[in-house]
From TrEMBL:
Keywords: Pyridoxal phosphate. Belongs to the trans-sulfuration enzymes family. GO terms for biological process: transsulfuration. It comes from Laccaria amethystina LaAM-08-1. Pfam families: Cys_Met_Meta_PP (PF01053). GO terms for molecular function: carbon-sulfur lyase activity; pyridoxal phosphate binding. Signal peptide: none annotated. The modification N6-(pyridoxal phosphate)lysine is found at residue 202. InterPro entries: Cys/Met-Metab_PyrdxlP-dep_enz (IPR000277), PyrdxlP-dep_Trfase (IPR015424), PyrdxlP-dep_Trfase_major (IPR015421), PyrdxlP-dep_Trfase_small (IPR015422). Its cofactor is pyridoxal 5'-phosphate. This is Cystathionine gamma-synthase. GO terms for cellular component: cytoplasm. The keyword S-adenosyl-L-methionine does not apply.
Length: 398
């Protein structure tokens, strides 16, 4: 069954928390770090305190809870079908997950290089050997499987259920970095994930103007432990970021499906370009300039029968990659585009183009990552077309 990302939940999911805010239709930015202490008499009568950290009637200190962040987490919990907690960045959330699971071994292969660097920091903090193994190696009890899907930078999907079964057989846990596929594209809990990680900086934030991270777990007990750790790690999402994120979530269901549909159109079009022989043209673009396109929509069923279509029930990812014919072309390409902004990151309303080597030293020097925004898809296609046409005149070293 297709989970519809509910616009009603996105707009009204925090309504019960809005009542006490003085009648403003939009939330106010709450900058107070500290909150008026309760009258002991009120506490005794139970009139104000309810002890529920997810739904506090009053706040104490903003490292624990504050009004706008609590509202944002309510919405994130509802749309992710679990208990969500926010962090100061995606990598702060990654670190919190490592502290929470305390793995002795982590199975991870490829994906966002920053998560690998965070795992290195965790290794240092433990002062013991942390073993990092390949996703497809044999697992032992207590392993943490860290699966990113769709995968940065190519946007290819990996089989969540396969890794869930594999790691659960030895009593380990499965974390899914689902940054590339926010709701409604994919719901990792349906395929056995224990924890979902998002860089909220990307699609949830959606406007390239806030840093945040999100962890979602299935049990309130786990959420409470994560909340305790976060309070004392201090990796809290800031006041302005909380407000910006809440504001952005109101339109998640309008942005992401549109970005997904446009990306799919463009990936298919670019794939047709990649399949055009040198000396021929496709839709005005000469064959040979694009060597390869990666996108989950182009991914065949794998040998184990994994069909990404079932996992990505709400549409394909809106960030994907192409391979140009030379590194000189890849260096020039971002600067030949008019609407795509040459910049790293992804998920915003504005389309971005990145020569991936510039931020990931391990990347193929010919690889270009595209993050599709909410512009008109025909304008984006025309922009790609004119830039690919110009590449013919950029000299490549032989
Ligand atoms: C950006 C990103 C992160 C890190 O998030 P920040 O908010 O930049 O800390 C983690 N995983 C993936 C897949 C990302 O794209």
């Amino acid at each position: 069954m297709v989970n519809k990302l509910s616009g009603t939940v996105l707009i009204h999911g925090d309504g019960h928390l809005a009542k006490s805010s003085g009648g403003g239709v939009a939330p106010s930015i709450s900058v107070s770090t500290t909150f008026r202490a309760l009258n002991p008499e009120d506490i005794v009568t139970g009139a104000v305190a309810n002890g529920d950290l997810r739904n506090p009637l009053t706040h104490v200190y903003s490292r624990y809870t504050q009004p706008v962040r609590t509202r944002t987490e309510q919405i994130l919990s509802r749309i992710n079908d679990g208990y969500a907690l926010t962090y100061s960045s995606g990598l702060a959330a990654s670190y919190a997950a490592l502290i929470f699971y305390q793995p002795k071994r982590i199975a991870i292969t490829g994906g966002y290089h920053g998560c690998h660097a965070t795992i290195e920091v965790y290794r240092k903090s433990r002062g013991v050997n942390l073993e990092v193994i390949d996703l497809d190696a044999a697992y032992k009890p207590g392993d943490l499987c860290w699966l990113e899907t769709p995968l940065n930078p190519t946007g290819e999907a990996r089989d969540i259920q396969h890794y869930a079964d594999k790691v659960h057989k030895v009593g380990g846990k499965l974390l899914i970095d689902s940054t590339f596929a926010p709701p409604p594209l994919q719901y990792p809990f349906k395929f056995g994930a224990d924890c979902i990680l998002h860089s909220g900086t990307k699609y949830f934030g959606g406007h390239s103007d806030l840093l945040s991270g999100v962890l979602v777990v299935k049990a309130l007990d786990d959420w409470t432990k994560l909340h305790h750790d976060r309070t004392f790690l201090g990796s809290i999402m800031g006041s302005l970021e909380s407000w910006l994120l809440l504001r952005s979530l109101r339109t998640l269901h309008l942005r992401v499906p549109r970005q997904s549909a446009s990306a799919t159109t463009l990936a298919q079009w670019l794939d047709a370009v990649a399949n055009t022989l040198v000396g021929h043209t496709f839709d005005g673009v000469p064959g040979g300039v694009v060597s390869k396109v990666w996108h989950s929509s182009l991914q065949p069923r794998d040998a184990c029968g994994f069909d990404p279509r079932q996992q990505m029930e709400g549409g394909w990812n809106a960030t994907f990659a192409i391979l140009l014919s030379s590194s000189e072309h890849a260096t020039q390409f971002p600067h030949l585009l008019q609407y795509f902004v040459p910049a790293t990151s992804l998920g915003g309303v504005e389309s971005l183009v990145e020569h991936r080597l510039q931020s990931d030293p391990g990347a193929d020097p010919r690889l270009i990552r595209l993050s599709i925004g909410v512009e008109e898809v025909e304008d984006l296609k025309a922009d790609l077309r004119q830039a690919l046409q110009k590449l013919q005149h950029v000299k490549s070293k032989l």
